[in-house]
Amino acid sequence: MAxxxxxxxxxxLNEEIHMLASQRGLFEMPRDICYLNSASYSPLPLRTQEVGxxxxxxxxxxxxxxxxxxxxxxxxxxxxxxxxxxxxxxxxALIPSISYGVATAAKLLTLPRDARVLVLENDHSSPVLxxxxxxxxxxxxxxxxxxxxxxxxxSAVLAAIERPGAPPVGLASISSVHWSDGGLIDLxxxxxxxxxxxxxxxxxxxxxxxxxxxxxxxxxxxxVIFPTYKWLLGPYGRAFIYIARRHxxxxxxxxxxxxxxxxxxxxxxxxxxxxxxxxxxxxxMGERDHFISMEMAxxxxxxxxxxxxxxxxxxxxxxxxxxxxxVRGTGVRVADRHLRAPHVLSLGFKGVGFEDGLPAGxxxxxxxxGIYVAxxxxxxxxxxxxxxxxxxxxxxxxxxARRLRG
Length: 406
What we know:
Mean pLDDT: 93
Distance between the termini: 37 Å
Structural class: alpha/beta
Strand content: 15-25%
Radius of gyration: 22 Å
Low-confidence stretches: 1-17
Largest sheet: 7 strands, mixed
Helix content: 25-40%
């Protein structure tokens, strides 16, 4: 039976426990499994799994669905996503992926010819490839910000924005946390620098939403996009885009009946009013009635909001710092704490007696012991979540040290 510290949303309210406790009891997480790979996929909470199974049955008997059922699901998920970034629900669109969101943004923007579009070296494909595809035809220039040797992504981005004599920046399309090395970017500083040039700011918040505090009303970005299948404890294929109101009068990526004011099958005249709805709902994906996964996505986000980003960040920072301290004696390289995200730890192996990069078979060897991390660009990425605890951190450190000695 799980202990009190592993059950319920209110574990962090115990007066004797100032930090959010491990939520392992809410997941199907056997004690012999040390899963430190939430930056790839998070497990689904038990409650979400139960809802998913019930939803499959519901889709099997569609005659039991009320007419208002789908819209209730849409709005529940929209509100849950908005809550994570302090947005209004009307500014959130339901989408299937980050790449869909970036394509939506690209359709809304007309960038000046010869303007620079800033992307990060080795950033994930989604915030990069759309602009590379459009650059020649639309006449803007892609500038790739090189991965800094000192790990200071924020300074590297600011230097690129403010480089003397360079053409103006039209757009920065960047991840808020670099997926491979866990490098943290100060969105407030970058946003301020971009505003001074009148540039558009698109944030891929895949590795931020739900863990790091994002307040779009204070930050005022143009677009913020995030999925649920990693840090938000949700299913694959559900994502959300915040669209600033200054961009909401554009044409959506897809043309849908629900994106128009009055195109309904129950009408006497089907195309009664084809004007777009006046908010971000016009940008919802087609076939948005995902009876199975939409509610699952909402539940994960609601759990995250209940714990709160600050509490989650504090707990995960404790775990990654415990690991960072534990591996220091092994010669493994870890970025300075202020340069890395609190929940994604990247371990480098250059110069510790190995060939440049991650030793062959190391990740697979750890997996054979029930310890799961990821290989990312010749480094090891360690990414705990709320179900992990100090035993997991210490077990990983001990196993890594043993294998490096071997």
